[in-house]
Design a protein that fits this description.
mainly alpha, 5 helices, Golgi apparatus membrane protein TVP23 homolog, membrane, transmembrane, TVP23-like
Length: 206
């Protein structure tokens, strides 16, 4: 008995593996350890500031612990999490003439794909939210006249604010340069127009 030929009712379907990989890349965490420590020190410093009065009677002990956590957070964000989570880095060096130079770097090209959207959101939200929290603490110490905590919130605002400012400069540096060029160009055009108007007016009076 001869075998009956099988009917071929299938059709070719194109699979876009690149789109799936890109979607997966945007969702997952590529650097979970860096994300953890990026959040751990800053959250711990805020919690210690809020709760230290319940567990520790010594202001000096609380002050030292909070400053240590803030310093660890500053170093981690500046040297590790910023580079891994958003591909940005800022640093300072002193040249041979003794002049201090600030460098703001941004990862570009194919290397930029090493970061994910989820990690980027966590990085920027934590920087902005924590800075707002420390500013609230700053005004809170003023309104409640708790001046002994004033130096603590100043340190928190300055260290977190320094990282926020540095990474904004890294992110917007090239755009800022273009804005400066455009501003200078428009200023020159306005100045020339004013000179032309003044010259024409002087010539008309003569």
């Amino acid at each position: 008995m001869a075998d009956k030929p099988m009917l071929d009712d299938t059709e070719d379907v194109a699979l876009d593996f690149g789109a799936e990989d890109e979607l997966d890349r945007q969702r997952r965490f590529r650097h979970p350890v860096a994300v953890f420590f990026h959040l751990a020190f800053r959250v711990a410093s805020i919690l210690v500031y809020l709760l230290c009065g319940w567990f520790v009677d010594s202001f000096i002990t609380s002050f030292v612990l909070i400053v240590i956590l803030l310093s660890m957070d500053f170093w981690t964000v500046k040297n590790i999490s910023g580079r891994l989570l958003v591909g940005l880095r800022w640093w300072n060096y002193v040249d041979e003439d003794g002049k201090s130079n600030w460098v703001y770097e941004s990862r570009k090209g194919k290397l930029k794909g090493l970061t994910t959207a989820a990690e980027s959101r966590i990085f920027w939200l934590s920087l902005v939210v924590c800075q707002v929290i420390w500013l609230v603490f700053f005004f809170g110490t003023l309104f409640t006249l708790k001046f002994k905590w004033f130096m603590v919130v100043i340190v928190g605002s300055l260290l977190n604010g320094a990282n926020l400012y540095g990474y904004i400069r890294c992110k917007m540096g090239s755009r800022k340069k273009m804005t400066g060029v455009a501003t200078n160009f428009l200023g020159a055009q306005v100045w020339r127009s004013m000179l032309a108007t003044a010259t024409a007016s002087a010539a008309g009076k003569e």
